Amino acid sequence: MIINKPPMGWNSWNTFGAEINEELIMEMADKIVELGYKDAGYDYIIIDDCWSEMQRNENGELVCDKKKFPHGMKYISDYIHSKGLKFGMYTCVGVKTCAGYPSSFGYEFIDAKTFASWEIDYLKCDFGYFPFNADCKQIYKTMAMALQNSGRDILFSACNWGRHDSVKWMNSIGAHTYRSTGDIFDSFTSFRDIFVSQVKNLPYTSIGSYNDMDMLIVGMNGKGNVAQGGCTEEEYKSHFALWCLFQSPLIIGADIRNLDDFSKNLLLNKELIKINQDSAARPCQLVYDANGIWYSFIKELSDGDYILAYFNASDEETQGQIFFYDIGLPVYSKVGLKMTDLFTGESLGVVTESYTPTLAPHCCKIYRAKFVDLP
Q1: What is the pTM of this model?
Q2: Active-site residue among 65, 78, 183, 289?
Q3: Which of 48, 49, 111, 126 is catalytic?
Q4: Which fold has domain 8-276?
Q5: What digits encode the pLDDT tens for the residues 300-319?
Q6: In the chain, where are the structural domains located?
Q7: Which stretch of DSSP H or E encloses residue 139?
């Protein structure tokens, strides 16, 4: 199974935590379709932790919580699939899930068969309660093998928080996405620290295996299970643009039933989503890191265009800069860049030699650039 682009969808954890049930999941599936998110590419509905009973059955199989999901997981799966969507679930490679529920340590092949029987399409595999002396790489490899031999194509979303140098081997053991960060919270500091920590890991993303920087917090506005003060609109714009630029999976964590127009329009920004879903899946390149104050990046797209991006990580206004020589475009090339702002749609015209925007605190500027021959 090859995943040609980062997955997009919705996950229950950021907003609802343990407060999940059959009615909620089905309503979210309805809204993903009704509100245009499916058409934009968000097609996974993922149930996170706290979905099971506290004990396995007599056959050693996981059992869904009968109060939360009275009709069973196959019923949920069928409903989600009837909407043209895909169904995702959660387990852990440790002896318990992060919330203390039964996990898959030692049960990998049994659980993979169970998940396949429920016809899931995506499995998030977390890292809670992992034994100190167990072999992390080997356990994730076992789970990958179990899924590959389950009789169903299931996207393997490994989530070991970047422990044990996992960015260097997750692709080789069969992970389609791999979390290399701790949990995200709804604050500027949280997503900034995650972004900064992943700059060094940019080269490891490739077609079929994508670095997962955790779920989106756009639209949470200080509410929900991972609330931590919330972000400003400019900060949410930076967060979403950076996740698109870094080709992280785009998994919404907010309650999509109650999003304001700003948040919905940002999540549905076609130009930013195109960057994330570009068929070449080339990682972006760091052009300059100004001592952690501001960063600039370039990314090549499959159609020959380039993305130029600037991010101000500081609390003060500053200027970002990209000298075109540093991105492979010398002055004597007689080539300029026709640049378009992907937030506003404004054209900057043809720019030569360098571009230096002013960046408000916590602000991101991102442009699509086309080559133009100069006279």
Answers
A1: 0.97
A2: 183
A3: 126
A4: TIM Barrel (3.20.20)
A5: 999 999 999 999 999 999 99
A6: 8-276, 285-373
A7: helix 136-148
